[in-house]
UniProtKB/TrEMBL annotation, chain A:
Source organism: Methylobacterium haplocladii
Entries under InterPro entries matching the protein: AAA+_ATPase, ABC_transporter-like_ATP-bd, ABC_transporter-like_CS, ABC_transporter_ATP-bind, P-loop_NTPase, Sigma_54_int_dom_ATP-bd_1
Family matches, as Gene3D superfamilies: P-loop containing nucleotide triphosphate hydrolases
Keyword Cell membrane attached: yes
Record-given protein name: Sulfonate ABC transporter ATP-binding protein
Automatic annotation (TrEMBL), chain B:
Organism (species): Methylobacterium haplocladii
Alphabetical list of SUPFAM superfamilies matching this protein: MetI-like
Main location: membrane
Gene Ontology biological process terms, A to Z: cellular response to sulfur starvation; transmembrane transport
Transmembrane as UniProt keyword: yes
Membrane topology annotation: Multi-pass membrane protein
Keyword Cell membrane set for record: yes
Keywords, comma-separated and alphabetical: Cell membrane, Membrane, Transmembrane, Transmembrane helix, Transport
Compartment(s): Cell membrane
One Pfam family from the record: BPD_transp_1
Record-stated family: Belongs to the binding-protein-dependent transport system permease family.
Lineage of the species this protein comes from: Bacteria, Pseudomonadati, Pseudomonadota, Alphaproteobacteria, Hyphomicrobiales
Domain ABC transmembrane type-1: 58-242
GO cellular component: plasma membrane
Protein name listed in UniProt: Sulfonate ABC transporter
């Protein structure tokens, strides 16, 4: 059966996750339901420790849920339905930039020349076309994050997962990269799950913002932001949406 | 400028050392038969080379050295990787390792001779044992301390089998630590070469023993210096290789 376009590309139902610690179980996520339509730019916000990274780790199979199901509706022929951009770029220091970008392609049985060509192309896409020959330690933090983004894009995932990818960067670099991600997402029409602490970043990028709150974490708010793109950072509607989300977040944490 | 000065001082030190060495037997402070002055060494070397003995001894020792090093380092790396990657294997071998590890390589000489005779294989065996433990522990430690975060990167990109993990992350990440162990082993193996050959396996060590029994101390010194030179050569080449392999480091 080929996936229908109307079905959500990711359908999370009753997802729970608990860690055993000191003989007690520590429930991080509790019966989470979330359906993500194809092509949506979904931003997840929430306090530190609420389980945002854990959710992404479950999706990409780095963590096993203790209950519930995750359905991913993609063509089974696609070997890398998802790719993850980590908060700290996590480039492999012994590979040059180009080889880092090509990393995920080495599993796909692609000839070397083609891998290089694809990696070059992705590097240009993130604006680092001429840095392919450098070692990771010769890059700035922002450049490293771009390489991590290119590495994730290179495998042509259906869903791009990004875990606070820009939180360690200065605001100037961060805004540049936000625009970059927005442009790439517009161009490739990929589904994006983007985790952030930054409410302004969330409303600027998102089609939809989901607030995770509480212990165990649940969805406390689910807000659609349907401002047309390209957006202006100081757009009144976005500022208003951010104000409401902040209110929501502080109300939720006051409740606990 | 500072480097030039350091080189100059090192040279002064060496010359002073040679002068003291030369003076001691000449001024009869020691018996020249027990300590030949350095000025006699070049002639002794030429004589030894001309007779063909030098080249034969060097080739024999080098072959013990290289084969022993490869066998010991290969086994040490292989088992070190398995022990570093799989906790169960480490646990399984923990007490065996504790039992065997403190036994010095030379304590294996009797068995080496019983098993292999006074043959090159005995020397290779003794060299390999000494090298094995050094490389094994260096590799195990390096593999165990590979950054978990980088292993997750491999997993996230679908490299999930132990072999893929090894090739893509563990081996390159552990290379610096493994190389440190290998360099130590490079020096240790020379000691083992001489020790093994002193028991009769043909090579530099046995040639030195022959010379000393004839009180040809100048020949003994020739081979001591030969070993120093060979070790220096190997170490320099290794450091160059290491620098190239680790050129990704800041
Ligand atoms: N391996 C683990 N074992 C036990 N507890 C864990 C483990 N990994 C994460 N946790 C706990 O799970 C909770 C959620 O962690 P997670 O990393 O998902 O938070 P987060 O929302 O991403 O936070 P941040 O915004 O600070 O990144 C935290 O309380 C953390 O302590
Ligand atoms: Mg996190």
């Amino acid at each position: 059966m080929s996936p229908t376009t109307s079905a959500p590309i990711i359908d999370i139902e009753g997802l729970s996750l608990a860690y055993a610690r000191d003989g007690r179980t520590n429930v991080i996520l509790d019966k989470l339901d979330l359906a993500i339509p194809r092509g949506q730019f979904l931003v997840i916000v929430g306090e530190s420790g609420v389980g945002k990274s854990t959710l992404l780790r479950v999706l990409i199979d780095l963590a096993k849920p203790s209950g519930g199901t995750v359905t991913v509706n993609v063509d089974p022929a696609i070997r890398t339905p998802m790719a993850l951009v980590f908060q700290d770029a996590r480039l492999l220091p012994w590979r040059r930039v180009l080889a880092n970008v090509a990393f995920g392609l080495e599993r796909l049985g692609m000839p070397k020349a083609e891998r290089c060509a694809r990696a070059e192309q992705m590097l240009s896409l993130v604006g680092l076309g001429d840095l392919g020959g450098r070692w990771p330690h010769q890059l700035s933090g922002g450049q490293r994050q771009r390489v991590a983004l290119a590495r994730a894009l290179a495998v042509e995932p259906e869903v791009l997962l990004m875990d606070e990818p820009f939180s360690a960067l200065d605001s100037f670099t961060r805004e540049g990269l936000q625009d970059e991600v927005q442009r790439i997402q517009q161009k490739t029409a990929k589904t994006v799950l983007f985790v952030t602490h930054d409410i302004d970043e969330a409303v600027y990028l998102a089609d939809r913002v989901v607030v995770l709150a509480g212990a165990p974490g649940r969805i406390a708010a689910d807000v659609t932001i349907d401002q047309p793109r390209p957006r202006a950072r100081r757009d009144a509607a976005l500022v208003e949406a951010a104000r409401q989300l902040r209110g929501e977040l502080s109300r939720r944490s006051a409740d606990l | 400028m500072i480097r030039l000065r350091a080189t100059g001082l090192a040279l002064v030190g060496l010359v002073a050392f040679l002068i003291v060495w030369e003076a001691a037997p000449r001024l009869d402070l020691v018996n020249p038969a027990f300590l030949p002055p350095p000025s006699t060494i070049p002639a002794a070397l030429l004589k030894e080379i001309a007779s063909g003995a030098w080249l034969v001894a060097v080739i024999e020792s080098l072959s013990h050295y290289v084969i022993g090093l490869c066998v010991g380092a290969g086994a040490g790396m292989a088992l070190g990787i398995v022990a570093g990657m799989f906790r169960s294997f480490e646990n399984l071998t923990a007490w065996v390792v504790r039992l065997l590890r403190p036994i010095p390589g030379l304590a294996w000489v009797p068995f080496a001779i019983i098993w292999f005779g006074v043959e090159p294989r005995a020397a290779v065996f003794i060299i390999a044992i000494g090298v094995f433990w050094i490389v094994f522990f260096a590799t195990q430690g390096a593999v165990r301390s590979v950054d978990r975060d980088l292993i997750e990167v491999a997993q996230a990109f679908g490299f999930r089998s132990p072999l893929a993990r090894l090739a893509k992350i563990v081996l390159p990440a552990a290379t610096p630590g493994i190389l440190v162990g290998l360099r130590t082993a490079l020096g240790q193996a020379w000691m083992a070469v001489v020790a093994a050959e002193i028991f009769g396996v043909p090579g530099i060590g046995s040639r030195m023993m022959q010379a000393s029994s004839l009180l040809s101390t100048d020949i003994v010194v020739v081979y001591m210096l030969t070993m120093a030179a060979l070790y220096g050569l190997f170490d320099t080449a290794f450091v160059a290789l290491q620098g190239w392999l680790l050129r990704w480091r800041p």
